[in-house]
Amino acid sequence: MSIKAKSLGEFLKAHRLGEEMSQVEFADFLGVSKQRLCDLEHDRSNVSIQLCKELAETLGLPPEWLVKLALQYLLNKEGLNLKVS
Questions:
Q1: Residue 79 has what DSSP assignment?
Q2: In a 3-state reduction of DSSP, which class is residue 44?
Q3: Residue 35 resides in a domain
Q4: Which domain holds residue 50?
Q5: Tens-digit pLDDT profile for the chain (85 aa)?
Q6: Tell me, what's the pLDDT at 45?
Q7: How many domains does the chain have?
Q8: What CATH number is given to the structural domain containing 70?
Q9: What's the CA gap between 80 and 14, in Å, rounded?
Q10: CA 29 to each of CA 37, 72, 73: distance values in angstroms, whole numbers, following the listed order
Q11: Residue 52 maps to a domain
């Protein structure tokens, strides 16, 4: 599986919509508040590596995928021409 999303928030929202879940349902599933999920989906807050690992575990994904996605988004957001591999 390759990640086509440009940010962790974009990925989470696409995943939630693909599962046909509301924000409340998906937030409960992930173990975060609805407001935290909303902030994540709209890329309004940075995420820790630990949170990426926890989300990946809950979603049954390799943690490296979400960590790479979050780090690459932060690098791009800061205008740094670096690639996470």
A1: T
A2: coil
A3: yes
A4: 8-77
A5: 445 778 999 999 999 999 999 999 999 999 999 999 999 999 998 899 999 999 999 999 999 999 999 999 999 999 999 999 8
A6: 85
A7: 1
A8: 1.10.260.40
A9: 26
A10: 11, 25, 24
A11: yes
Token digits of residue 63: 């943690």
Q: Tell me whether residue 85 is in a domain.
A: no
- At 80, list the tokens: 């740094």
Residue at 18 is within a domain: yes
Q: What angle do CA 85, 2, 75 make, to 5 degrees?
A: 40
pLDDT at 28: 98
Q: Where are the alpha helices (DSSP H) in the chain?
A: 8-18, 23-30, 34-41, 49-59, 63-77
Place of tokens 């940075």: 46
Burial of 45 (0-12, 13-18, 19+ CB in 10 A): exposed
Tell which residue, 78, 70, 28, has the closest CA to residue 51. Answer: 70
